[in-house]
Amino acid sequence: MRYKSVERMKPIGKHSLLGASGEISDFQEILLYLNELILYDSMWDDGNSLGPKEVHNYLTRVMYNRRNKFNPLWNSLILGGVKNGNKYLGTIAKITEEGVTIHQPYSLKTYWEFSTFENPAQGAIGSW
């Protein structure tokens, strides 16, 4: 690590913990977005607070929005937390060939070279 005094894990609200890799300045911008979200949520003063799933969905939308504007945030994020006894773990990948959101049930790469994908009509009963 180049900067040893920089923390890459931050608590988000009462129920979540966010970890990041990638650009520190982009991570700081994400934290500004999240601080604003948590502040806005707490202003309602309704006794509810954002859980890890809501924070994960928000981060997914932020990262997607920035990618679509061709001004991406160069981070890979992992968010975990527990709210009301429900555990949650989700990741958000930066722009790569695997640049997708992964959450439970955890997704795996599909191997498209299987014979079923090459000729799906083979062995089918009836006519198309």
Task: Give a verbal description of the structure.
- This protein has 128 residues and is of the alpha+beta class.
- Helices cover 32% and strands 23% of the residues.
- It has a single domain, classed as 4-Layer Sandwich (Glutamine Phosphoribosylpyrophosphate, subunit 1, domain 1), CATH 3.60.20.10.
- It has three helices and five strands.
- A hairpin with a 3-residue loop joins β1 and β2 (16-22).
- The N and C termini lie far apart (58 Å).
- InterPro entries: Ntn_hydrolases_N, Proteasome_sua/b.
- It comes from Gossypium mustelinum (Cotton).
Task: Report a brief summary of the structure.
This is Proteasome subunit beta type-4. By secondary structure, this protein is of the alpha+beta class.
How would the blueprint of this fold be written?
Elements: E1 9-12, E2 16-22, H1 24-43, H2 52-68, E3 75-83, E4 86-92, E5 101-103, H3 115-118
Antiparallel strand pairs: 1-2, 2-3, 3-4, 4-5
The percent range for strand residues is 15-25%
Structurally, the number of domains stands at: 1
Output the radius of gyration: 19 Å
- What class, by secondary structure content? alpha+beta
Strand order of the largest sheet: 1-2-3-4-5
CATH class: Alpha Beta
Q: Do you know the CATH topology?
A: Glutamine Phosphoribosylpyrophosphate, subunit 1, domain 1
User: Which bin fits the share of residues in helices?
Assistant: 25-40%
Give the ordered list of helices and strands: EEHHEEEH
How many distinct helices? 3
In CATH, the homologous superfamily goes by the name Aminohydrolase, N-terminal nucleophile (Ntn) domain
Name given to the CATH architecture: 4-Layer Sandwich
| Backbone shape | extended
Major sheet details:
5 strands, antiparallel
Protein name: Proteasome subunit beta type-4
InterPro entries: Ntn_hydrolases_N, Proteasome_sua/b
Pfam family, one: Proteasome
